[in-house]
């Protein structure tokens, strides 16, 4: 007795097929679920249910969609003078799948905290804040926020100018 019926479920509900979601049957009796152009809303538990006259069986697998992070643009305030304090925030606006690793560079070199320079973020989170107290001309330069997750990386650079 062969296979009589095969269905796919997403999160326990019948899977709706559309122009991105389709199922193909194989001569061998198997089926393949195809999902084109994955989106965050595709995340979930997918279950294949096979039924015949002898009963049924199923297998469930999670689908995790990971996006490359995309950093929201930031800029430093204009007309900074020596002694001012500056704070900028690096925010991941796209790329829902953490954990994220956020780091800062100055002129393409890793930035290290000092008494007047701090970098704050929640481990694995999508936000990092850079604060520089008592800025001086030596603080002028290109500051880059780098965001990484398992899917890839993004970076954004802004120039800090201290005049006067």
From TrEMBL:
Record's keyword annotation contains Protease: no
Per UniProt, the keywords (alphabetical) are:
Disulfide bond, Immunoglobulin domain, Signal
Domain Ig-like intervals: 6-66, 69-163
Q: What is this protein called?
A: Ig-like domain-containing protein
Enumerate the Gene Ontology biological process terms.
Answer: homophilic cell adhesion via plasma membrane adhesion molecules
Q: Which residues form a coiled coil?
A: none
CDD domains referenced in this protein's UniProt entry, alphabetically = Ig
| Taxonomic source organism | Rhipicephalus sanguineus (Brown dog tick)
- Name the Gene3D superfamilies on file: Immunoglobulins
One Gene Ontology cellular component term attached to this UniProt record is: plasma membrane
Q: Which domain of life is it from?
A: Eukaryota
């Amino acid at each position: 007795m062969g296979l009589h019926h095969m269905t796919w479920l997403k999160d326990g509900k019948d899977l709706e097929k559309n122009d991105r979601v389709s199922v193909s049957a194989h001569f061998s009796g198997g089926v393949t679920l195809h999902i084109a152009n994955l989106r965050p809303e595709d995340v979930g538990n997918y279950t294949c249910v096979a039924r015949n006259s002898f009963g049924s069986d199923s297998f469930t697998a999670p689908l995790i969609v990971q996006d490359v992070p995309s950093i929201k643009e930031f800029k430093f305030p204009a007309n900074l003078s020596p002694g001012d304090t500056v704070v900028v925030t690096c925010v991941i606006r796209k790329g829902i799948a953490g954990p994220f690793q956020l780091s800062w560079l100055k002129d393409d070199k890793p930035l290290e905290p000092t008494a007047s320079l701090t970098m704050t973020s929640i481990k694995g989170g999508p936000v990092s804040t850079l604060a520089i107290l008592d800025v001086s001309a030596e603080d002028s330069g290109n500051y880059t926020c780098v965001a990484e997750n398992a899917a890839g990386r993004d970076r954004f650079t802004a120039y800090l100018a201290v005049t006067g």
